[in-house]
Fold this sequence. Notes:
The complex is a heterodimer. Chain A is an all-alpha fold. The longest helix of chain A has 34 residues. Chain B is α/β, with parallel strands linked by helices. Chain B is globular. The interface between A and B is medium-sized, with 36 and 34 residues.
Amino acid sequence: MASEPLPSLLRTTIRRSFIVGRVNLVVATGASLVWGTLLSLTSGGAFASLFPLLLPVLGTIGTAGPMLVFTNDRTKGVFEYLIAYGVPTHRIFVNVLAAALTMVGVVDGLTLAVALSLRAALGLAVPLAFTEALLGYSLPMSFGATALTTAAGMYWTSLSSPRTGMNSPLGLLPMLGIAPGGLALVAAEGAGPGVRIYVLIGAVAVVVVLATVLLLLESRLMPRERLLSPA
Amino acid sequence: MSSDPLLSRPSSVRSATRAGISCRGVSAGYLGSRVLEDISFDIDEPAVYVVLGPNGAGKTTLFRTLAGILRPYEGEVLVGGERIDVQASRDHLHYLSHMDGIPDGLTVREALRFYARVERAELDDVDRVLRLLDIEPMAGRYLAQLSAGQRKRVSIARVFLHEREIYLLDEPTANLDPKLSREIRELILSLSHEKIVLYSSHNLFEAREIGRYVIAIKGGRLALFDRIENLRGEHYVIGIRVLDPGTPAALSDFTRQGDYYLRELPGPESVPGLLRELDAQGVRVREAREMSNPLEDLFA
């Protein structure tokens, strides 16, 4: 008997992530919009130097929803149900990751749209340094740090008894998420103006490499048994 | 729960062929730690097969292995003659975990639509099972707002979205009130006329009521696979409720438990003789029932 193809559950995962993680999303988007608005009203120098550094930090705070979905689904037996009906663990992993990247895209996208529209409305130019920092650092760091922390959070959850306290990924994820961006911010401020961009690009490279390594190890680090609720 | 027979069948049937399920020398467990050892059986007769065993015996692990969630370390699980890791084999099965398997962030109707998509059922069947399980009034509520029993009801609803040949139901009536438990048992019993139902429960009354076969797991091994009617307990106890206790000596060999007078007999074949003896001594019997359950001995 020929089997019908497995349906994609990506849209449902993204939608559930938005619903379950709405508080984090609203806080992150709100903070990001406030900072974006305030910095848009400043001179070109402050806008170009500080705004790209803050964007990844605030963006990743808003991505706790997919991890909440992942942890709940594991605890409540949704994963074993999905596996029984033929959904591969790889697809579960990728869906959660894609949901997290979508959410950070929403926070960053909204913030950028508001900040750039405001500057345009006020007749303020967008400095070239801002565009370079945005493309070279902010966006890759946002998506890289989100991928890194979501992958690490999924491995961590699958190794532990899920709880929602500070000793679980759900409690620590926001801190894990802002760590790469925060450390890069401190390092960049400490570096001289000439080497600042290299420090930032180096930080992005480290995060992207680490995230890629974690993603490639998915089949080794996350066997099916790790996704099952307690027997 | 609706009793409308038109509501009880899904709009599509997965398979027209009857698939059996076989376990061939299966050892399985978690991350290298073995829970099941050398389990073998073949099932192809439609019936309810009650899986029993003490806590930690390996019942849930057996269900997960049969459902293809856990890969056996040794041996194989075959469904319809094919290994369970083939998608076509999975398509013969419905699996209901002892956990709800309820996805947060969705309403009841959305969750059933989610299940329907995963199981490749028709979306039209969502409305049918909403009525079948009497969950239509809560269709728009978020699952997080439901009680444990209501969530279990939603969880059970999904196995009626789509007909399959084999139903693996791990404690389907846990957390349900007695009325709904009875209704679910009746649904399962009606299913078992055409389908193979493996069913685990800690409720021995329930197991005896609907099971035709028993699969007993002890210490991860298959301890028994037989028809329940063939089981003979170590002790056979009959309970008598009387309208008139007759002569003072008539019930002197019995012990009292509530309204019942209890007596151990060699087996059910001794019951007619006992009743004749009591009648001769003027005892008017209102009810006689078996008080011991041979399934209890499987937990010893």
